[in-house]
Amino acid sequence: MKLITCIFLFTLIFAAAVVNSQVIDHKYPQNRSFTVDEVTEAYRLLQKKHPKLCALQEIGISDIGRPIHLFVISEDGNFNADAARKKGKLVLFVNNGIHAGEPPGVDASVKFAEDVLSQQKYKKLLDDVVICIIPFYNVDGGLNRSCCSRTNQNGPEEYGFRGNAQNRDLNRDFIKTDTRNTEAFVAAFQGWLPDVFIDTHDTNGSDFQYVMTLITSQLDKQNRYLADYQRKSYLPKLYEDMKKRNFEMIPYVNFRGNSPESGIVDFMETPRYSTGYSTLFGSLGFVTETLKYKAFPKRVEATYAFLLSSLELMSSEKSAIKTARKKALDDISSKQVFEIAWQLDTANLDSIEFKGYETEYRDSEFGIGAKQLTYNQEKPYTKTIPYYKRFIPSITVQKPSAYIIPQSWQEVIKRLKMNNVVLSRLERDTMISVEMYYIENYETVKTPYEGHYQHYNVSVRKTYMPVKFHKGDYIAETNQIANRYLVETLEPQGTDSYFAWNFFDGILQQKEWFSPFSFEPMALDLLKNNSFIKEAFERKKQEDPEFAKDHWGQLYFIYKMSPYYENTHNRYPVGRVP
Description:
Layout: H1 2-21, H2 36-49, E1 54-61, E2 67-73, H3 81-86, E3 90-95, H4 104-118, H5 120-123, E4 129-134, H6 139-143, H7 180-192, E5 196-203, E6 212-216, H8 224-244, E7 249-251, E8 264-265, H9 274-279, E9 284-291, H10 296-316, H11 318-334, E10 337-344, E11 350-363, E12 371-388, E13 391-398, E14 402-405, H12 410-418, E15 424-425, E16 430-444, E17 455-469, E18 474-477, H13 483-490, H14 516-529, H15 531-543, H16 545-548, H17 551-560, E19 575-577
């Protein structure tokens, strides 16, 4: 019996030794990036080596039917958000591979997780921060590997494709949520509601000296408490620390003219984008954009440095971050006026020091008289260039006390529930006096964008009227942390509203019409007996010569002012309770 026990113990010790002796085979120094299966296996190995500190969880499936994972690191072995919140910990949430052809974060996050779990100097930071990492979000695109879909990218040897299995750009899908990938992400994000959110990318476009550029969720549209804290404290420290790590950063190089010298403009990421979405819920959002012309190992190292810098800064700034976020979430719950569209403030110009390369124009090799812009890496420079970083609201709305959403619009209701909106339901059919919008004008894109014919330049007319709502219709009161999400999605003029993304297109088609031969006598009778219609009709004829000659147009004008015209045509169905 003792012999059997000894053999059993030896087997356990040997198995543990084998696991602990295994090391992750990092690919990036050889200009290779993890495949989807390889990166999943790397995290499984970390879980085996540190079972009390980390867990690999399945949070959903992709459109191609493959699992999407979340790797959670927590010093106390509690791998759920409630436990982290009870202990007052901050949450760092890192998303990788949303564009599967931009993989630095995939590889950097494995090294980051490995070092945090194994090195004591980083382990102590876990007293303050729980780390959540999506190893490879766009699993579908990650399986579609090749050498060449990203022209002129300097490694790795192979990488994934930007679109997922539906050929959707997942970084345009956060509000509309057309994919199962996004459903999985939203469930994980809403479960954790992170304090800091990081989405890792590569960028292209111009050439310059920096390896890393950074999109910070645009501060003018960020909650005022978070924006003030970031401007004064968090961002200066983040930029300074990255400089000390030999990866000096510049804001994302979104230039206004033909080259960076003409000035760079802050990127306005509306809620279709990852950090535009995270902003709705009071997270500090960042998109790392390493320059694809730099060697892949350097891009991985820069992303790794950013993750470490963020973790250390979150630990040292824990109290300040918690205070700013609490103020922000309280403000979102009680705020009365919300901005739902923005425009660049060109009158408010700043400047920034920029390290670039001299631009030159040479004759195109095609020999057709064209000039080709080039960047001369033999001529680096440091210049002060214009920096447009301020935006002003172009549309603001007063929030209602509640929205009433008819249950018939199930796709919208589904998304509200996904985003943890607190909803109640009407207990009986009820006539309620509410503010209703009529869609007066809108424009629509000519070709599909991410599977939708998106609307823009929407104008509305507000009418206070009694509307019959039905038992089971939904009520969303605007006294919750989801307020900003509610306003930006349910106000039809919002840039990324559900109206803009075609969820309410059914209201735009008129259902009932008239036959001119039978309606004309009724139209004449309306003109004779209704002075309001007659005055409007005569005024229209005087102001519009074409209308004065248009028989059908005149009948339709009268029809629209008559009791026979459907009052639900172009009427946005969501009621606003004053």
